[in-house]
Amino acid sequence: MGKLAWWTRPDGRVAALSLWLALVTCGAHALWLQAGEHPSVTAGLLPPWALALAFAVTEGFAVHIRVRRGGHSIGLSEIPMVLGLLGTDPTTLLVVRMVGAGAGLVFLRRQRGVKLAFNLSLFGVQTTVAAVVFRLLAHPTSDPGLWQWLAVYVAMLATDVIAATLVTAVIALHDDPSEWRRLPAAMRGVPFVGITTTVGLVSALALLNDIRAVVLLAAAAVVMFLGYRGYMRQSQGHEQVEELYAFTRALDSSLDSAGVARVVLEQARDQLRAEVAELFMPTGDGQLLKLRLHGHDQLDRTELADGPPIGVWWRPAFDGEPVLVTKPASVVDGIAVPLPFADRTTGALVVYESLPDIETFDETAVRLFQALANHASVALARTWLVTELRQEVAEKEYLALHDPLTDLPNRQSFHWAVDSLTGTGSPAAVLLLDLDRFQEVNDALGHDTGDALLRAAAARIRDLVGERGTVARFGGDEFAVLLPGVKSREAALAVGDELLGVLEQSIAIGELRLSARASMGVALAPEHGTDAKLLIQRADIAMYVAKSTRSGIRVYQSEDDRNSPRRVAMVADLREAIQRHDLVVTFQPKVDPSTDKVVGAEALCRWHHPAHGTVPPDEFIPLAEHAGLIRPLTLHVLEVSLRRCAAWRRAGHDLGVAVNLAPSTLLDPDLPDLVSRLLGQSGVPAGALTLEITEGSILADPDGSILTLDRLHTLGVKASIDDFGTGYSSLGRLRALPIHEVKIDKSFVQRIALDHRDRAVVRSAIELGHALDLAVVAEGVEDADTYAYLAREGCDLVQGYFVSRPLLADDFANWLSARLAVGR
Hints:
Blueprint: H1 10-34, H2 48-60, E1 63-67, E2 70-74, H3 78-87, H4 90-108, H5 113-137, H6 146-174, H7 183-186, H8 190-209, H9 213-252, H10 257-272, E3 274-282, E4 288-294, E5 298-304, E6 323-325, E7 334-340, E8 346-354, H11 363-400, H12 411-422, E9 428-435, H13 438-445, H14 447-465, E10 470-475, E11 478-484, H15 489-504, E12 507-509, E13 512-514, E14 518-525, H16 532-549, E15 553-555, H17 560-563, H18 565-580, E16 584-592, E17 597-609, E18 613-615, H19 617-626, H20 630-650, E19 656-660, H21 671-682, E20 689-693, H22 695-700, H23 702-715, E21 718-724, H24 731-736, E22 741-744, H25 746-749, H26 756-771, E23 775-779, H27 784-793, E24 797-799, H28 809-821
Parallel strand pairs: 14-15, 17-19, 19-20, 20-21, 21-22, 22-23, 23-24
Antiparallel strand pairs: 1-2, 3-4, 3-8, 4-5, 6-7, 7-8, 9-11, 9-14, 10-11, 12-13, 16-17, 17-18
């Protein structure tokens, strides 16, 4: 980008206005001289050199009235102006004032540059307007009368109004476009003009009669000026206190941290009369946030990763020491004060580059700045706390409605979306899909790869659906899509085919390329239902049919309920079996291989269906989770296991029992209370119960899972990571979990004799577990060599067919007695 033209910059705009005013003044006087008008003047008044001296003195000492960040000056220049109007022609008066007033500004008030140029052009306009107004209303005479006095008053009031207006215009051009709103405040000095004009008229009359009287009038004028200046300073002191109170009220009324920060910076600039204000605040991550207000209230935000730079002039403020830098000792003057926070961290509030209407910052300004900083630190600490609480609430609300793995809406959120849409009678399609053979990916490649596959599949579904609908993850490998406005099966099937097609495209995960084939069920509203529960249920039925027939996608049909009798019947039979306690709990012994001592057993649930025979857990556990039966099933297994464990212990066997938890059970907030109640009823100590969980259970909701595990740990219940080695068990995760043991998956244990790599995995798992102070259990021990190898490697516990198959409760008691009888 090219450089901006000079007249578009703040100083350039002021310079352009000054040039325009100078041209208008020169043009007016050129016309005046060309007209040849040389009006007579009153004899006996001050000569030009004396008049110039009077202008220099009166402009050099002025009262400054502050209006926010602007400043208006009031002096005694009206006195020589009155004398000039009555006793000098306009052009001479212009020259005299420019020379005298210019000298006062340069030598007494030390003005330079654009500010000096503007003030001189302003004086030129004032002088010209005063002369025009005076000569329009009256003419100079040797003995000025009442009419001339009135004309002088009108002329001087006009010049002061022009001055206030033009000064406001300059502030608006240079610094703040909203300055025009404060023009009435800039007019507060107008009444003073009447007083000084009166003194000027009295001075003129005194000069006409006795020039010695001017000494008395000069003394009176000085006393009046000093008194008025004292009054204005006192008045501005009261205003400063009021502004501090207003600042405090503004902070108290705002709960928005960004709004409070802006109020602090604006007030710091305005009250300290500075060009720039900066606010430094420590953040929670160890960085330093810098907010900078400058120019036309422009707010810049910067993060300083390394904290305050070493060597900068405001650095001591972070150590609790206020800093004052003044002119002319430094090119840039400024103040920095500490900004203490409740957590014992310290920030800083900084202002620098004092405005031209003050000479430089002083100790009084430092004390005011410290008071302002104290108020600011309290308000900022409060609003930061409120902001953090709001963010925490928002995050919790978000997590309650979203899946942590894929960041998609969860089942509850999807239910609300469907109900809110179908409740209005709007047509819609609900698509339910799950990934085929996803469990094989988890088993073969580990949970880390499985999670990556789920995230990639979720991203593809979300990208394809886009703005057309809502995508959710129900858990595991199951996803749902809501498509508003879809009325026909054909339209729903078209989107479904797109989804299946995009999922079948290979997905790169590390060095692997996987394909995520899926089965999908579709239900339409209002044809198949008008609420979320029914629509999702029927889409689920259609998906089950699509999976069993391998058709890929299917729209729900009423006969689908009849075409899946096994599944529907199995859910009903499972519910009855749980209610009747028909499910059998068996126990597989766990042995210390170093002593051959039995230390406990793992409880395993088995279901013998009267029509279908033995139903494996891999089939009925997912059915229980899907049908909402996992809680009563878990309660049944826990009750039986603890009751049997209590019987063993009463018989003199110091044994423990381990129970597997389904993934969803770990997210049940009532689980710790349920376990505590069952322990109390059975009389089994909490340390004798071990709950086995998989890593996948924890990854579904890490925060919720760890909270449940912590509560169980407080009870004294032990936790075990099941199938250790098949997923991604990082050291960081293991160290963070309140667990007591890990179980090496049988897929590694069973191949110890055949594969040296599996031996290495088992050896590493044992060493890692012991390094983390965890007990190590090996399952799937089926021969004496494996048993002996695990004993040599220091494995704490083993279980498997070599020790014993899972046994019914009575059979386990007999087996235990027989083992003890032979001394084992």
